[in-house]
Specification:
heterodimer; A: 233 residues; alpha+beta; 7 strands; 20% strand; B: 206 residues; mainly alpha; two-stranded antiparallel ribbon; 11 helices; globular
Chain lengths: 233, 206
């Protein structure tokens, strides 16, 4: 058959595409369970990191079971919702729902000194893609115990700095409510901007949009838990 | 192994090196050489992709319609890269996070398409395999050398193990933050090219 005829080219490409598609879907399905497990472990490590517990891929599950004593699902009214596994909730899909239909996970941790920390998931937009994280709050439902942030593809050296411990450490000890018990969240401020010391951290130079996205993510995600905060204070 | 076949592996590692002589695949050499571990994983991934795509293209070389040969090459390289990416995500998740987009970008690594066009389309599978391994290794060697210096000087570690003793730091030694940034990779690369050219006169232009 003539290798340059149109019909040969068509048949050739069709066969090639089918073979490649079959091979790829086979690989993807076989490896999927392992990849999902990795993602779950990563999530556990992130949650642990919010309460300042360093874990490795090997001991994450063990430590998670040890420290995270309870996982709750609440609605925006702060009432518990039963029958849903908090760990499998995808915050991104919940945020697309109407307020009343949202299922919000809360992780409750008991750390070594015996105190209880509440961990809330966060999800928002950075410059290039999604950013997410966890914030651990002390049992006064006001002061921050620890945070962890991650991102999909922020600029290395600029926006991606939100992933560093140095940036995350700034949040420790900040408070979410002012002295009149009004929710102010935590602001991410650039040089020259002023804000109350206990409610603000320094932004990343050169990473303004990521910093602002992070600020918005904090206030948007935490706002949903307002009723939960009030009920558990 | 015949001498000629052996040359297929040794040439690209030294005097026909894809990075230092042909100056291909520079971007990834700058981007993922901050630490040794990702550099080695990247090197192995590239060796796998070049060698396998070379073999596949070489097996198909008498059937590929000339007019769509670039598309066929792209499809095969892309499929192999996706397979590598999936494998990394399943078995070395941490490293796959560090490599992130660069695994996907293996597709655009000029070395791969270059070898397919220049070698695999005209040679037998075994020779093509050796050529692929050689070129992948030539790329990998440079990556590892650059990563070695960047990790040692930039982070004071090698393969994530601390090699610079704490007493040095106490005495005032500091890690060089500049080495971490991509421009320094280019400078290290330049030094490697300089050393290679001064040792091998064949490579210098008149």
């Amino acid at each position: 058959m003539d290798r340059n005829s149109n019909s040969y080219i068509f048949i050739y490409s069709i066969i090639m595409v089918v073979v490649v598609a079959l091979a790829l879907s086979f690989v993807a399905t076989t490896l999927k369970p392992k990849q999902e497990k990795n993602i779950a472990v990563e999530k556990k490590r992130n949650i642990l990191s919010a309460i300042h517990i360093e874990s490795s891929a090997d001991n994450a599950e063990l430590l998670f079971d040890k420290y995270i004593t309870k996982m709750l699902v609440v609605d925006v009214q702060g009432n518990p919702v039963n029958g849903i596994d908090a760990f499998t909730i995808d915050l991104k899909t919940e945020l697309h729902k109407q307020d009343a239909e949202r299922h919000l996970p809360v992780y409750i941790a008991k750390i070594d000194d015996g105190s209880t920390k509440y961990i809330f998931p966060l999800y928002g937009k950075g410059l290039w893609g999604p950013i997410w994280g966890y914030i651990a709050v002390n049992d006064d439902m006001n002061s921050v115990y620890g945070t962890v942030f991650a991102h999909k593809g922020e600029t290395p050296g600029l926006g991606a700095e939100i992933e560093t411990k140095e940036f995350q450490k700034q949040f420790d000890g900040k408070t979410l409510f002012n002295s009149d018990s009004v929710f102010v969240s935590i602001l991410v401020l650039k040089d020259g901007q002023t804000g109350a010391e206990e409610h603000s951290v320094d932004a990343i130079s050169g990473g303004t949009i990521t910093s602002k996205g992070l600020e918005l993510m904090l206030s948007d995600c935490l706002k949903q838990y307002m009723n939960f905060f009030t009920k558990n204070k | 192994m015949a001498f000629k076949n052996w040359r297929l592996i040794t040439d690209p590692i030294n005097k026909n090196n894809p990075i230092t002589v042909q100056v291909l695949g520079i971007c990834s050499a700058l981007a993922i050489t901050v630490k040794l571990q990702p550099a080695v994983v990247m090197a192995l991934s590239v060796i796998f992709v070049v060698a396998m795509s070379n073999v596949i293209i070489s097996l198909l070389r008498n059937t590929i319609p000339n007019r769509i040969r670039i598309i066929v090459q792209l499809v095969i390289v892309a499929a192999l890269v996706i397979i590598v990416d999936e494998l990394l995500k399943a078995y070395v998740f941490d490293i796959s996070k560090q490599l992130s987009v660069f695994v996907g970008l293996i597709i655009t690594n000029c070395i791969i398409m270059g070898r397919l066009e220049a070698f695999a389309l005209a040679n037998k599978p075994w020779q093509s395999f050796l050529d692929g391994v050689g070129n992948g290794a030539g790329y990998g060697v440079i990556l590892v050398i650059v990563a070695f210096f960047r990790e040692l000087l930039g982070s004071g570690t090698l393969w994530n193990y601390k090699v610079i003793p704490q007493s040095w730091y106490d005495a005032g030694y500091a890690n060089n933050g500049l080495i971490i940034l991509p421009p320094m990779a280019l400078i290290i690369l330049g030094i490697i090219i300089w050393i290679q050219r001064s040792r091998n006169k064949e490579l210098s232009d008149n």
